[in-house]
Design goal:
With about 300 residues, the chain is of the alpha/beta class. Helix content is about 35%, strand content about 15%.
Length: about 300
């Protein structure tokens, strides 16, 4: 009898393509996915899979060039930069008007209601509407407005929605974390008296706050690279989502976490589907092999 899985698919922009590789590896190994919960791209890929349209979706995104991605972005000035109508027209052609209630597996898309400051779980109604609300990154994509509710990206409050999958009572809860980084090490750091971070990776030659500038200090300082406004905003969002993800994992640890390194691609690198899917497949292969051999993640 196949091992059943409740699959949790996290948010992370274009890194969400990695979810495709994870799903394909789970299927290849004979696992039975009976429940999916996702935020943002996790909701999109999970919904497409639940509706049986993963193969045409995969074929479409793997053929997108950077120029084609740009042509899909219908930029407007009202309530967000990108309406997403062209993208959702393609998704509608693949999915039709399917309802969540009619999907063969349990499905939850998580969005954020910024009017009432709470999560919204889509477990009924039109699948496409649920996906659109869950992927509406504030400031980049137009929100979904339902009466007084303004719905945006689920990753704002819950980038890794584990709790919705618990009721399925699967053999395993497997979560795919798109915020993983070797830099994500939770620790308290004691600041020395000179005010600089005193930890590995920081030069002992960095000047104290009251040091006079000199040639030696100037040579030793290696300031980090800082991108433009968009890069700064995206980095801030990803720092927030990484922290929230760790809280969600600590609150309800899944049986297995499949980590996708955040450096696999940029947030908006939607033209790099092939390599990101491969990265997801390889991460799943490594984590599942360790699990099957009795190891821990």
């Amino acid at each position: 009898m196949a091992t059943t899985v409740s699959l949790v698919l996290g948010s992370g922009g274009a890194r969400g393509y990695a979810h495709i590789g994870v799903i394909e590896e789970l299927n290849r190994r004979g696992y039975q996915i009976i429940s999916i919960a996702g935020s943002s791209m996790g909701a999109l890929v999970g919904g497409v899979y639940a509706a049986g349209a993963l193969e045409p979706y995969r074929e479409w995104v793997c053929g997108l060039s950077w120029i084609q991605v740009l042509k899909l972005l219908d930029v407007g000035l009202a309530r967000g930069a990108i309406h997403g109508n062209k993208v959702f027209s393609r998704l509608e052609a693949m999915l039709g008007g399917v309802l969540i209630d009619d999907l063969p597996i349990k499905y939850t898309a998580v969005a954020t209601d910024i009017t009432y400051h709470k999560e919204v779980w889509f477990q009924h109604g039109p699948l496409l509407e649920a996906i659109r609300a869950s992927v509406a990154v504030p400031g980049f994509f137009t929100p979904v407005i339902k009466e007084e509710h303004i719905l945006v990206d689920g990753g704002v409050l819950n980038p890794l929605p584990i709790i919705p999958t618990v009721a399925a009572q699967a053999d395993l809860i497997i979560a795919v974390d798109l915020t993983y980084s070797t830099k994500n090490v939770a620790r308290a750091i004691q600041l020395p008296r000179n005010g600089w971070l005193d930890e590995p990776g920081f030069s002992d030659d960095w000047p104290a706050a009251n040091d006079e500038p000199n040639a030696q200090n100037a040579r030793s300082i290696k300031p980090p690279e800082v991108g433009g406004r968009l890069d700064m905003l995206l980095n801030a969002v990803e720092v927030m989502q990484s922290s929230l993800t760790q809280y969600k994992i600590a609150g309800y640890p899944p049986d297995l976490i499949i980590p996708i390194d955040k450096d696999v691609c940029g947030f908006f690198d939607f033209h790099r589907a092939v390599e990101v899917i491969d990265a997801g497949r390889e991460a799943a292969r490594t984590s599942l092999t360790r699990l099957e051999q009795g190891g821990t993640d």
